[in-house]
Design goal:
450 residues; four-stranded antiparallel sheet; 66% helix; 10 helices; elongated; alpha+beta
Length: 450
Amino acid sequence: MLAALLLLCFAQGLLRAQGNAAASLPSAATTPTVTLDEALSRARSNEPGFAAAAAASRVSNIDRSIARGALLPTVTYHNQFIYTQPADGVTGSSNASASSPAVSSTPRFIANNAVHEYTSQGVVTETIGLQQIAAVSRADAAAAVASAELEIARRGLVSAVVGLFYGSLAADRKLVVAQRASQEASSFTMLTEQREAAREAAHADVVKAQLQQQQRERDVADAVLQVQKTRLELAVLLFPDPRSPFTLSASAIAAPLASQSDVETAAARANPELQSALSSLRLSNLDVTSARAAYLPELGVSFAYGIDAAQFATRGNDGVRNLGYSATATLDIPVWDWLATQHKVKQAEILHDAAKITLTATQRRLIAQLDETYAEASVARDQLQSLEMSAETAKESLRLTRLRYTAGEASVLEVVDAQNSLTGAELAREDGRLRYWAALAALQMLTGTI
């Protein structure tokens, strides 16, 4: 009886453990299918470099708003209380005699106006100068540079995601090729064993087939490892947990290649590196202007309205109205600063010359990149059909060679060579597809279409 109870408890525990294990495995219904567009969207949310570039762009836009606001008058509500010791030593007008109010209200410091002084004023201030105007243009140029840098960061992220996405797809397809080659090698090993048993082939054929089969099994293990590595590298950009299961979905038909003239036109219009170089040159021009603006005078205007009196009231004890206004205009003319301004202008001009060199170098590099990438995509596209035909030809060659070996007309080396040729042709076909996908994506990034 006790043994039966123990057996029943063990069975229940085993069923419960199997249920928990099944519940912990991800179901096919919950495994997400990731397209290239979704992968790019997920990566933009998770990649820290792109997030930093986006933050810098938003900050530069706020800097532009701050620079524009500096051209407008500022308004301050100024409140102040000043106490000064009386000249006769009396601490306050309430302790002074009525016959000597003038003595008790005289402050000891002649720079102050009264023993008790209250200031409550609205102050409007405005500073007008070339530096403030140039600062707005400079902030606009800096925002344009940050926007271009953000686009560069985005395209760099796109390049990484596209490479990993199509690399993972290619690894999946290469795994299929390795599994097919392993099955073919296993089938050929069985064929050689059957022929050996029928005394139609030597044992050396079996050994050669077994060596081929073992190599193909190692190839499958390497292909599985490569699939795992590429999926983990891609999942780092897509999911909080890189071990999350997912499947990739892509069109089996590659996008067509546009004409070279259309590619060059789009790249000249939407290339972020070129836009960044142009914005940087404009920014350096404004830096020179801002540095030279220090030679010019600045006009400052201030207007205040409120009270500045010995009583915190609109009217004093003697009935005089305390409310009033004052205005100040200041013109600061620079005379001598020990050549500091001249040196700042020289620094700005040096950086401006460097920005011009960067722009011309960017233009040359863009031309070279366009020609190289378009040539790469064109050659890869033209080779796709040839690679497909080579794979089909190698497949037919293997079929015929196996038939000849079965009939005793071919050697085992010819079959192994045909197997290797088919595997190599299929792997070359997948590499050709990956090459075209990568080149086409590079062109799309240069033209701003992805």
